[in-house]
Specification:
14 helices, binds calcium ion, binds thymidine-5'-triphosphate, about 350 residues, 13 strands, alpha+beta
């Protein structure tokens, strides 16, 4: 049975979440910014929507430069709110997890998945599932994403990037080599600037050149491990498994309220057992948190979040309860009645390990 692997990447992720929460932004340039606070405009662009990109705005660009490129145009410069994006990310990963065999999350907005069993080795069936996943993410989270399906991770990752935004690209096992051959080597997952410079110096520019290079030469150039990986990858034969990395970076709970309400006290009262449960999990794992989010889901399934990053990591129950009250009051004040409510603790830190680390180094 042919292995079938996918890669999902959300489109202009942070900026798209801002559009979802404020639909009037759609069609205008949206720029998510990391303000450094030195002057009003100092800092960089984290990401921007495609409308802004048409004006030459890019991730990592100074905010001041982006402002110059958008002079005279009504654009929104929004401070980055990572906790909020993580709530959306969690939900997307949950949807993905229930539709495939296994997922390997590789970033806040992307994951590999293996769908071999689920699709019975059939690329047509995998394509239908990919469409279903896109529909569910759009319906439940109102977000678009791009998906690539291929016989391995290298092909899937490149395929997901091919027709952005809102793309779907299927590369069958028989098409993999033809798909890869003409591409520049930098497209292969794991080929950074250093490796690509080394390859370029040796006239290896396209994936085709890589596949045709003498194995010995590649090994001398890149070392055995990387050479073997790239050699396989170039031939469309990457066999790296999709493996769930486990590990936890967040704890969260969302529950359905007894009745729709906009009263923070009522919501908090119903959330108390969940808060205690989350706190118990945190303490039993020796973790502290730095980011906390309140989550509200409306009658129409719309998702709303308020997050806060606290100065120092903590595992205090009192802090959880107090922050949730504050965030929920804000959230309900803005959105009105909700049907479901929840809390998420993020940016978790393993205090036990940090502690032992300092013991070793001091
Ligand atoms: P990407 O997936 O690289 O980009 P994107 O989702 O914004 O756009 P695309 O449609 O091309 O996929 O990054 C995911 C998120 O990571 C992005 O929304 C914001 C954040 N990010 C930064 O904060 N700084 C950066 O330099 C990049 C590249 C991303
Ligand atoms: Ca993305
Ligand atoms: Ca990404």
């Amino acid at each position: 049975m042919s292995r079938i692997v996918g890669h999902l990447d959300l489109d202009y992720f942070f900026a798209q979440v801002e559009e979802v929460e404020q639909p009037s932004l759609r069609g205008t340039p949206v720029l998510v910014c990391v303000f450094s606070g030195r002057t009003e405009d100092s800092g960089v662009i984290s990401t921007s929507n495609y409308v802004a990109r048409e004006h030459g705005v890019k991730s990592g660009m100074p905010i001041a430069l982006a402002k110059r490129r958008l002079e005279g145009i009504k654009a929104s410069f929004i401070p980055m709110d990572r906790g909020k994006y993580e709530v959306y990310s969690d939900r997307v990963m949950e949807i993905l997890r229930r539709e495939v065999d296994v997922i390997e999350q590789t970033g806040i907005d992307e994951a590999f998945f293996d769908i071999t069993k689920r699709a019975g080795g059939d690329f047509g069936a995998a394509a239908s599932t990919a469409l279903l996943i896109k529909e569910e993410i759009l319906r439940e989270d109102r977000l678009t994403c791009s998906i690539g399906i291929g016989p391995n991770k290298v092909v899937a990752k490149i395929a997901s990037d091919l027709k952005k935004p809102n793309g779907l690209t299927i590369v069958r096992d028989t098409e993999a080599m033809g798909f890869l051959s003409p591409l520049p080597v930098q497209k292969i997952y794991g080929v950074g600037p250093k490796t690509s410079k080394l390859l370029e110096d040796n006239k290896i520019l396209a994936v085709r050149d890589l596949a045709e290079a003498p194995a010995q030469e590649l090994e001398e150039l890149l070392g055995r491990k990387l050479a073997a990986y790239l050699y396989n990858a170039a031939k469309g034969a990457d066999d790296e498994p999709v493996s769930d990395r486990g590990g936890i970076s967040q704890v969260s709970r969302i529950l359905t309220l007894k009745q729709d309400t906009n009263d923070p006290q009522r919501v908090v009262a119903q959330l108390l057992p969940a808060l205690k449960d989350i706190h118990g999990r945190l303490v039993s794992k020796g973790l502290f948190f730095r980011n906390i989010s309140a989550i509200g889901i409306g009658k129409d399934l719309s998702l709303h979040t308020k997050s806060k990053t606290i100065e120092r990591p903590t595992d205090s129950y009192a802090v959880i309860e107090e922050e949730v009250k504050g965030l929920l009051t804000q959230l309900l004040g803005e959105v009105g009645e909700v049907r479901r409510a929840g809390v998420r603790l993020g940016d978790l830190q393993d205090m036990a390990n940090q502690h032992s680390l300092t013991e070793f180094t001091s």
